TrEMBL record:
The lineage of its organism: Bacteria, Bacillati, Actinomycetota, Actinomycetes, Kitasatosporales. Pfam families: MST. SUPFAM superfamilies: DinB/YfiT-like putative metalloenzymes. InterPro entries: DinB/YfiT-like, MST-like. It comes from Streptomyces mooreae. This is DinB family protein.
Amino acid sequence: MVHRIEPAAEPPVTLTSPYELLTGYLDFYRDAVLRKLQGMSDDELRNSRLPTGWAPLALLKHLACVELRWLQWGFSGQEVENPWGEFHERPGSWHVDSGESFADVKEFFQEQCARSRAIVAEARLEDRAATLGGRVPAEEDRPTLIWILFHLLQEYARHVGHLDVARELADGGIGE
């Protein structure tokens, strides 16, 4: 049975500020991820209906770690204990431990998003990342904040599309 997941409002079509447009769409997609996962059974969150084998809850954990890696670890240069926490080993599949509930992973995701928002609010779009994965490359090799935000935006857009498919296969939920 198909049921509709109501979309949130996109940022206003009149925006001209790159900062407001990028941060507005990042929040739009962050919300879309949570809306698409809300109401799924624990079994559907933890298991895959796709040949690649990724599970929706593991994708949420992956996006939380992406936020942590790009903005805390990379852009701000903060010490991060486990920036690749969605992997048992790299390369490998995303994982969620059996003791991690949807509420736990959702809280971790929301904490990383809040930290990202705070970092972005204190910076300028042309500022360069402090590090790249714990190493300090030459200035010209460090991405700008605008590049990082655009990279995050495309990552979210792609994975929200993946969640569209996973949710429809799980329980018929469709929506933007």
